[in-house]
Amino acid sequence: MSDEGTLVLEERHGAVVVLTLNRPERYHALSRALSEQLEAGIARAEADPEARAIIITGSGTKAFCAGGDMLEMSGVEPGAAPAGPPPNPTGRIGKSPLPVIAAINGVCYGGGARLAIACDIRLASETATFRLPGSEYGLVVAAASLPRLVGAAKAKELIFTARKFDAAEALACGLVTGVYPQAELMPAAMAMAETIAGHSAAAISAAKRVIDAATLSDAATAMENEANRTLRGSPEQVARFRSATQRVTGR
After folding, report:
1. How far is CA 1 from the centre of its chain?
2. What's the angle, vertex CA 109, arms to CA 105 and CA 113, rounded to 5?
């Protein structure tokens, strides 16, 4: 696949598919186009009979994913006219029969953190940083999924305060399961993915379904989605989001 104009790079390493977010000038912010390409890449991996695991990471060393594209979402820089339902790579990860590993190589904020939380396993570089700014922007981000990883009290602290935290804290609270020097992150993720790929695909897929059923609530996810439908577009939310957009982008 050509790199030019490609927002998600796809590589096969034996039974492992690596999907690399490739929008470095925006810290791999989730525009509609990038989200569509990521969801399509996951679908292609699922359709590949030889694929056994997926790794998602960001190109370069600065970012995994900075979250939603604030300029596109605020209307400052409109994206392509929507056609059909919005892409949902986060939901696709949860429904995928393949195990998905997030190799978090830098900034992991907002929707990017929600994307990582949806993955089955998260590994981080020592320089990775995390933030869940939804409450600052007037939205609910990862309230349905973060508690299963870090517990209810820690999830409330991180979501309510919207503060930035580092890889060491992410490891201590259970958000990630390993922290590595930048140069060792992808080799570690690949080694783990190859180990998983060597086991029974049917057993891994079934185990994923059972673990998710035991720890994820469809009702809580529906509540989060409904809360955001109510909050998004309210005068307060619009004002908060546009103010945040100006602070972050200067536009």
Report:
1. 23
2. 80
Whether residue 213 is contained in a domain is answered as yes
For tokens 């939603």, name the residue.
68
Give the residue from 142, 133, 165 showing the smallest Cα distance to 66. 133
The CATH number covering residue 93 comes to: 3.90.226.10
The answer as to whether 39 is a domain residue is: yes
Q: Identify whether the C-beta of residue 194 lies closer than 8 Å to the C-beta of residue 15.
A: yes
pLDDT averaged over consecutive 10-residue blocks of the chain (251 residues)? 72 98 96 96 98 98 93 66 76 97 98 98 98 95 97 98 98 98 98 98 98 97 95 91 80 67
Residue 106 domain boundaries: 8-182+201-249
Q: Domain tally for the chain?
A: 1
